[in-house]
Specification:
Number of helices: 11
Order of helices and strands: EHEHEHEHEHEHEHEEHEHHH
Radius of gyration: 26 Å
CATH class of the largest domain: Alpha Beta
Shape: elongated
Number of strands: 10
Amino acid sequence: MPPAPDTDPKPGHLYVVGTPLGNLEDMTFRAVRILQSVDLIAAEDTRHTGKLLAHFQIATPQISYHEHNRHSRIGEVLHHLQARQHAVALVSDAGMPGISDPGYELVVACVEAKIPVIPIPGPTAAMTALCVAGLPSDRFIFEGFLPLKGKERTARLEAIAQEDRTIILYEAPHKLLKTLEDLVAVLGGDRPVTLGRELTKRFEEFWRGTLGEALTHYQREAPKGEFTVVIQGATRAAPVLSEDALRAELEQLLRQGMSRADASRHLAKATGQPKKTIYQLSLGVDPEGLTS
């Protein structure tokens, strides 16, 4: 086996480090080593991160970097990195930095300043919930937190209602009922949903049902903990084609060399109409009259 590449932190590099959502056993060996080896850790909440560092016996100094001081801190962190004397790690309170938190802006600033940004992968609530939601996961979108109110919130909800991919949202417990009410009003109460709360923590729980049922459930049982909401996308109605349109489609497929059976099967799948009906129509398409 070839030797592992040199991955020790390098001066002038920003390391974006994933930390556990709640269960400290999810911390990776690489994350511990990087946090031990960098010169400085930019943390969303130094008190919260301090507990994590103490658990893993990491003595690296911290500075705070959060929503309210990010504008002033970005310049300070860039100064450390541009001098090429320090390696800096960015961490959030939980999960991967930059996902629905101000770490994104620091990453953008580093990219614009041509400072190398190195990901140290770790857990993220969106993927953790999606992989066990029991909803389609081959195509999905991450919406994070919805706008709080007004036209922006309404527009976002209306766009989500038309989305046919699985939708992932984050929500705080005190806002969950309002969000479920709005989702039921715009998307309808029958849409399947999975709600994950307190992911990887002691009181982790997954609730599955429809949006309407979820609203009823959490009206009876007060929401507790941070929620990740995974909603099934909208079902697209198959296009309804007239007989003339179906014949035109059949002609095109037959010109491409498909057999009547294959062309009928293809159109049946695309339109939702019975294969037998489409095949009967294909018999009226004269192959001798087709030109390549």
